[in-house]
Amino acid sequence: MRNVAIPLAIADMEQIYEVLKRYFGYDAFRPMQEEVIRHILGRKDALVLMPTGGGKSLCFQIPALMMEGTAVVISPLISLMKDQVDMLRNNGIEAAALNSSLDSRGHMEVRGQCRNGRLKLLYLSPERLQADLEWIRTHMKVSLFVVDEAHCISAWGHDFRPEYTQLGNLHELFPGVPVAAFTATADKVTREDIVVQLHMQEARLFVGSFDRPNLSLSVVAGCSAKDKQKMILDIIHRHDGESGIIYCMTRKTTEELSSALKLKGVPCACYHAGMDAEQRRMVQNDFRCDRIQVVCATVAFGMGIDKQDVRFVVHYNLPGSIENYYQEIGRGGRDGMPCETVLFYNLQDLVMRRRFAEESAQQELNRQKLGQMQDYAEANVCRRRILLNYFGERSETDCRNCDVCENPPARFDGSELVQKMLSVLVRTGESVGSTAAIDILTRVSSQLIKRKGFDKIKTFGAGAEISREDWKSYLMQMIHLGYVEVDVLHFRRLKVTTLGEDVLYGRKKAELSVIDRRDFKVPRKKPTMEIPYDDEDRSLFEALRALRLTLAREEKMPAYIILSDKCLHSLASRRPSTLAEFGECYGIGEAKTQKYGAKILEIIAAAGVDTSDTCGAAETSAPKPESYMERQKLLHLNSAKSRTSLPDVAW
Ligand code: ADP
Ligand code: ZN
Q1: 397 C-alpha to center of ligand 2: Å?
Q2: Per-residue pLDDT for 469 more than 50?
Q3: What is the C-alpha separation between 88 and 82, in angstroms, rounded?
Q4: How far is the CA of 29 from the centre of ligand 1 (A)?
């Protein structure tokens, strides 16, 4: 019996911290989690927007544990359900999924669990829910409905699924049962649509910060294919034993790159929509279970992946939009530990992307989005500020975890330039776009300017000492830094933000970067990331990682479900010597203490004996961890006989 049954007698809201520690092994909530949990426990509807890796699951899993009955979670992807259920069960929580991957016996079993009321969470696809609605109504006590990936319900969203629209009747069929919807991507229109479509009542909207501070950001411009490959190998080597994704624009590139890396001994595979479903499933699975380290993929890869410990994400080519780029790098570092992201950018990619945009159905929109992506890649202000401002989150400080922050360009007090630009915008009633604004500043009387009388305003010609080209570049910085906003829905008119007003009225200063017209930047070294556990014993960490791999193989589960990277770091730095101390470490709840405590304490004790002998010669018997590649090869060889041959992922 894998599950550790822990009796549940928690009715008091104040006990949410106890539940957090006991089942998940965490001490504190992330921003907004507690508010959402309290709101749902008050039996009210909620729509929650948080980025990938922000910690949405906990927001419904804790209420599910504390409420009477079973929470029904509607989720579009079977592969994600499995991961979530495995993770919950490994934490000693009764959870199951009903979907087409079960045989009839499995079905019977899950239905039995549903009926006896012990199940705290049941995962279903929307189709399954429709088919089983009546059965659920008569046989189960539902505590809560959770709609995961809720943007799928809206035709405005980017991933519309007609099956989701059936979910509107839940409130009528299950009066009094709250409905909580979760998504990582929803603009304003989609948000409103979700609330309407789900017939939400007194719904509260929770919008979390989209900042992902653990993702380092960098752009490397102007590299040849050969340079890129060399740099990618460097990245892979400095992430020995850690997983990574390399996004490529075309199927052919994924195949070529993957073959090249395999030749260099990297356990790697390609993934694209041209492969058949079975092949793709195998690659996904091998990646989840760390049998391959790197996947070279087109954008088709990712939706069904919940892997928590992706430590680097590379864009081999320029993405088509900032939205896509952010979503793709967002697949890294979900466990909150550092993840390195590198974007390669060169002109050939840009030309190719432009062609795609021209050939697409929404030419203008796609051209515009590509333009913004290009601006990002060429920018010399903090990249995180650009991203956050792009997503409408005002950000006033540099992040210190991007290539620009690490290697900052020369800066100057640009308050006066910003004031000149903003004053033009204010004096024209925020009715002009960038061309007209720069015309006014540089004293160009175009037709439009004369017609509107803008050549009479006080700031006409106020910036004539600066070239148009430089103004363009400064304006771009002002947009990136959040002083100016582009109204994309209304002719790309420029608007002054509240942060901009502060500069305009002299309440704050604005720093601008000196313009750097070098076409291509010098490739940079690995960004410096803060390492949260720098006092850890590195060889102990490696020993724990090896043990985790063995456990993962035994239990046939991905390593990140057994114990997270952060948890291993916490163990390697705190070196607990009793079960009680073990239970205090990050991410260790009661179930994991029971399951893994003894084995891990043994390893820590053994490591302690070896390293305490500081004066002794090198006769230490500590198991020296082999390199990841060697370990993988051994495992692969051992399991090769039992596994079907997998030419594409062998190395
Ligand atoms: P999302 O569904 O929003 O993409 P998850 O729910 O998968 O994110 O959470 C991402 C990771 O963060 C998981 O490994 C989860 O265990 C961890 N996590 C969530 N909440 C907390 C917390 N309060 N403290 C520490 N880790 C947390
Ligand atoms: Zn930065």
Answers
A1: 8
A2: yes
A3: 10
A4: 9
